């Protein structure tokens, strides 16, 4: 399965370009996640909102490696592609994910629960 379709990649890049203009100011944008990636045989989950326009392999989002400490940050998509769960299955895109809140709201909930619930 393709992790990011051209349409998803375009949306992530658009968000990245918008965020680049306001990063580090009080006008940073709290996007809704564009895509959810997960290990079908593990506990890793990523909710991604944007791609770095200067390095499109670098994504920003909420990352949960299944250790009880989900956090916001940048992640390398090539590294995500190498992750395997307990049975050796690769990371997949959740085809049915529909975000219902902003990334910061998911992050607040995840920190409280110790994992991403999406």
Question: What is the SS-derived class?
Answer: alpha+beta
Q: Rg from C-alpha positions?
A: 14 Å
Number of helices: 3
Principal-axes shape call: globular
Q: How can the largest sheet be summarized?
A: 5 strands, antiparallel
Give the N-to-C terminal Cα separation: 20 Å
Side by side, the strands of the main sheet go: 4-3-2-1-5
The number of E-state strands comes to 5
Low-confidence stretches: none
Helix content: 25-40%
Order of helices and strands: HEEEEHEH
Strand content: 25-35%
Whole-number count of domains: 1
The average pLDDT score comes to 96
Layout of SSEs?
Elements: H1 6-22, E1 35-38, E2 45-52, E3 55-64, E4 71-76, H2 77-82, E5 92-93, H3 103-113
Antiparallel strand pairs: 1-2, 1-5, 2-3, 3-4
Describe this structure in words.
This protein has 118 residues and is of the alpha+beta class. It contains 3 helices and 5 strands; from the N terminus they run αββββαβα. The protein has one domain. The protein has helices at residues 6-22, 77-82, 103-113; strands at 35-38, 45-52, 55-64, 71-76, 92-93.
Short description:
29% of the residues lie in helices and 25% in strands. The chain has 118 residues and is of the alpha+beta class.
Which properties best describe this structure?
118 residues, alpha+beta, 3 helices, single chain, 29% helix, 5 strands
